[in-house]
From TrEMBL:
Primary localisation category: cytoplasm
Catalytic activity: D-fructose 6-phosphate + L-glutamine = D-glucosamine 6-phosphate + L-glutamate
Keyword flag Glycoprotein: no
Alphabetical UniProt keywords: Aminotransferase, Cytoplasm, Glutamine amidotransferase, Repeat, Transferase
All copies of domain SIS, residue ranges: 45-185, 217-356
Organism: Patulibacter brassicae
A GO MF label: glutamine-fructose-6-phosphate transaminase (isomerizing) activity
This protein's name: Glutamine--fructose-6-phosphate aminotransferase [isomerizing]
The protein's role, per its UniProt record: Catalyzes the first step in hexosamine metabolism, converting fructose-6P into glucosamine-6P using glutamine as a nitrogen source.
Length: 366
């Protein structure tokens, strides 16, 4: 039945709709109430090894790489370990220095992406500790790792990823909580995060209920030739993923920028013909976000905001309101409207949504 459209017009839409259950499966059996933390059975690393880690290096390609960027922010904020993500397709060719105190994490839905596999093989050959965050059980990348986390998203048929992206971010949130709780994260913060994780499926379902409004915004966006996606700090990987999704399925040219970088160049592009999709959580950077929106408005750039209910309505032409969660998890919820936006823009433009031109589900050749 997973390979069946089940009444939907496209697998992408079906898989976007499956996210509440996919997230539920990802966290199921992994919450440890008693110690305000999570249990990750597949890591194959003892707490004292995990405590010795000085840096986390995350590798993946495309959307898997962007989900790794979400993961890097989660690990830095909750575990206070420096963490970065890099495209595996670059990493494998640049003869990197292997960090003896580092933990390497390969991210892949299929577990078969050639560039990611090559990066893992190179790391393993050089003695690095590599974990995987993988969907396909028993896949090549899963087999070449020292251990890791299966995301249990279920089969993903659409070439464009949706539920695997979300579930990977959830798996990183769990890893970050785990690494945090064996270091400095307090039991109260552990509880705060596990409660928020538990509430994610219902909140994702509530966002899916706003489909009509998102479809309307997508129809509007589909009328432009270009779009800019912006986000700040933890919102930036989502801007990248949102731009990627709309390029992939709607063939609409889109670029993602860190909001604060606009004034260093791309602000020159802002005009009535350049819509801006802005990821603007009401978090510790809310004031900065609002001033960016003012700068765009002053140049007549039309804005579609993905925001919390507190965003003043006059700051954006259109706003999709997303439920609140803990700020660290905002990107997970804010990405859901971006998926529907890409889907409905592609539909409005009559694209081949499940099999976009020139793309393959998993890139197993160079
Ligand atoms: C996402 O929509 C794309 N299909 C693509 O960027 C994908 O995430 C990338 O090719 C990596 O695939 P993997 O997760 O199977 O390794």
């Amino acid at each position: 039945a997973d390979y069946d459209l089940g009444g939907y017009e496209h697998f992408l839409r079906k898989e976007i709709g499956e996210q509440p259950e996919a997230v539920e499966r990802c966290i199921s059996g992994r919450i440890d109430e008693r110690f305000s933390t999570v249990k990750l059975g597949g890591l194959n690393l003892e707490p004292h090894d995990l405590r010795a880690i000085k840096r986390v290096h995350i590798l993946g390609c495309g959307s898997a790489y962007y989900s790794g960027e979400v993961g890097a922010h989660l690990i830095e904020s909750l575990a206070r370990i420096p963490a970065t993500a890099e495209a595996a397709s670059e990493y494998r060719y640049r003869n990197p220095v292997i960090d003896p105190n580092g933990l390497y994490i390969a991210v892949s839905q299929s577990g078969e992406t050639a560039d990611t596999l090559a990066a893992v093989e190179e790391l393993t050959r050089k003695g690095a500790r590599v974990l995987g965050v993988i969907n396909q059980v028993g896949s090549a990348i899963a087999r070449s790792n020292n251990g890791g986390i299966y995301i249990h998203a279920g089969p993903e048929v659409s070439v464009a990823s949706s539920k695997s992206f979300t579930s990977t971010c959830v798996a990183f949130a769990m890893l970050a909580i785990h690494l945090g709780r064996i270091r400095d994260l307090s039991p109260a913060d552990g509880d705060r995060m596990i409660t928020a994780l538990r509430e994610l499926p219902a909140k994702i379902a509530a966002i899916l209920e706003q489909e009509d409004q998102i479809e309307e915004a997508a129809g509007w966006l589909a009328g432009f030739e270009n779009a800019m996606f912006i986000g700040r700090v933890r919102g930036y990987p989502i801007a990248r993923e949102g731009a990627q999704k709309i390029k992939e399925v709607a063939y609409l040219h889109a670029e993602a920028y860190q909001a604060a970088e606009l004034k260093h160049g791309p602000l020159a592009l802002i005009c009535p013909e350049m819509p801006v999709v802005a990821v603007v959580a009401d978090d510790e950077l809310a004031e900065k976000q609002r001033s960016t929106l003012h700068e765009i408005k002053a140049r007549q750039g039309p804005i579609l905001a993905i925001a919390h209910e507190t965003l003043p309505t006059e700051l954006a032409e259109r706003t999709i309101v997303v439920p609140r969660t803990e700020p660290e998890l905002d990107p997970i919820l804010m990405n859901i409207p971006l998926q529907l936006l890409a889907y409905h823009a592609a539909r409005a433009l009559g694209r081949d949504i499940d099999k976009p031109r020139n793309l393959a589900k998993s890139v197993t050749v160079e």
